[in-house]
Amino acid sequence: xxxxxxxxxxxxxxxxxxxxxxxxxxxxxxxxxxxxxxxxxxxxxxxxxxxxxxxxxxxxxxxxxxxxxxxxxxxxxxxxxxxxxxxxxxxxxxxxxxxxxxxxxxxxxxxxxxxxxxxxxxxxxxxxxxxxxxxxxxxxxxxxxxxxxxxxxxxxxxxxxxxxxxxxxxxxxxxxxxxxxxxxxxxxxxxxxxxxxx
Length: 198
Hints:
Blueprint: H1 4-28, E1 34-35, E2 40-46, E3 57-65, E4 74-83, E5 101-107, E6 132-134, E7 139-141, E8 149-154, H2 161-176, H3 181-186
C-alpha cells in the first residue's frame, strides 16, 4: 500500500523533473534569434522568473526587424510562450484544449504593448482568444488589415533543440522573410495543435 507521504514525494519528484525540462525548452527559445541581412530577431523581454515554472503560462518576447543594420526599425514582435494549463472554455470542444502547449505569435506592430500575451484564458480550452478567428492551422486577429497571427504546438513535441528549430525557428523565419504563414505551417501540419473548427 502506498502511503500519502510517498505519493507526495513522487509528485514533488515529477514537478522537479518537469521544471528541469521546461527550463531547457525555455532556454532553447533563444534559437529563434538571428541577425541576417533580411531578418533580425532579438530578445526584448520575458516574464520575470526565479527559474521556477510554478506559473501556468510563461511568455518570452522578441523584436523583429527586416535587416540586421544597427539603425533598422522594429517592424513587429514575436512571442514564444509555454502554456501548461488553460481556463475552461464553453465556446466549443477543442481536441487540443486540455494539453500543455507552446504558443508562437507574431504581431505586426512594433510596440510591445501590442505583442501577443498568452494567459490561461487566451487561448482557453476551447481554443478561444478574444478578437481572434481560427483558420485551418493558426489564429488571426479579426481585422483583415492586421498581419498578426499565432499557432500552437503540443509541448511534448518540443523535446530537443532539433524540434525547436523544425517547428518554431524554420517556419517563423521563413514567414517573416516574406513567406505566408499558412504555407509554412502546412510543412509541419501534423505536429500542430490545429485550431478548433467553427
